[in-house]
Amino acid sequence: MNFLVIGKGHWSKNYLNTIKSHPKANLASHISARHILEKTINPSFYLDEIIKNNKIQVIIISTLPSVQIEIVRALKEFKGQLILEKPLFTSSAEKSFYKSLNSLKSKRMLINHFHFFSNDFLKILNNLNKKTIKKIHIYDYGKGPYREFIEPIFDWGPHSLGIANYFLNDIHYEKILKEVNNIGEKWFIHLKDKSSIDIKILTGNGFDKKKREIIFYNNDNSKYFFKEDEKIFSSKPMYNLINTAIENIINTSNQNDEIFKIAFRSCLSLLNIKKLHKKQKLKDNCV
Questions:
Q1: Can you give the three-state secondary structure of 246-257, one letter per residue?
Q2: How far apart are CA 12 and CA 17, in angstroms?
Q3: What one-character-per-residue DSSP string does 186-203 give?
Q4: How far apart are CA 140 and CA 150, in angstroms?
Q5: For residue range 225-240, what is the model confidence (pLDDT) as tens digits?
Q6: Is the pLDDT of residue 283 over 90?
Q7: Helix (H, G, I), strand (E, B), or coil: what is residue 282?
Q8: DSSP state letters, 14-50
Q9: Which of 9, 54, 59, 61 could be stapled to 28 by a disulfide with Cβ–Cβ 3.0 to 4.6 Å?
Q10: Which domains does the chain show, CATH number per domain?
């Protein structure tokens, strides 16, 4: 299966290594996203030629949300699988692009939401009963890095908000707190919905250490723990992600739709969190 990787940032290296480790995946081409958009006269024609000449079946786009949208827009004729990075969008204008997408195109998009390609996490989901879950505590934070091109809430938040949107249908924002320090930002987010599941999230890049852990509390006080180590986080789920794209082509099936909806809703939640926090801050300043 021939892969095209678009983007030459740090995360793209993980994709390259994973493709090389997969017996059914072949890295046919690797190009810079900015080169496509800034150095070519017609990005769509340029990409069509690469796809045709290399018989590309899967395209991975690993770049900024705004650049990712421009690449997707240029892939007018591509009918294979697309693997995109989260967050899908960080603004209302970017949200409109995905909202107006043809459903046939969005169903060919796999979004790299790590948890939903982790065998260990999926095993926990299979063992859980949504009706018996009382609360969920999500710790997904680190000590830096600070990236100028994306706000910490959009850099760190998609993981935890993706999980929240899997369990909650009609999210109510109980409490949103933000603390800025010399490292970055700390966010505390408290969510609920009509199902009465209570979700509390700590996320951001302003903590003194990295922690990725989820605790599920049942009504009978039993607990399920999911703790991610860095090796698992960067390798196995990505292998499963690439494997899913390959299986979709081989079996002409589609395992993408639910993940796309979760990715979209998680970004919508992040926009709401940012908006509500700003509104609360203005209200506090007026008191």
A1: HHHHHCCCCCCH
A2: 9
A3: EEEEEEE-TT--EEEEEE
A4: 17
A5: 998 765 444 458 999 9
A6: no
A7: helix
A8: HHHHHHHH-TT-EEEEEE-HHHHHHS-S-HHHHHHHH
A9: 54
A10: 2-114+236-254 (3.40.50.720), 116-228+267-286 (3.30.360.10)
Give, to the nearest 10 degrees, the angle between helix 257-286 and helix 92-99. 160
Whether the link from the prior residue into 87 is cis, omega within 30° of 0, is yes
Three-state SS at 279: helix
167 contacts: CB under 8 Å, gap ≥ 6:
130, 133, 136, 195, 197, 199
Tokens linked to 258: 């639910």
* pLDDT value of position 147: 83
Radius of gyration of the chain (CA): 19
95-130, pLDDT tens digit by residue? 999 999 988 788 899 999 989 999 989 999 998 988
Burial class of 101 by CB neighbour count within 10 A (0 to 12, 13 to 18, 19+) = middle
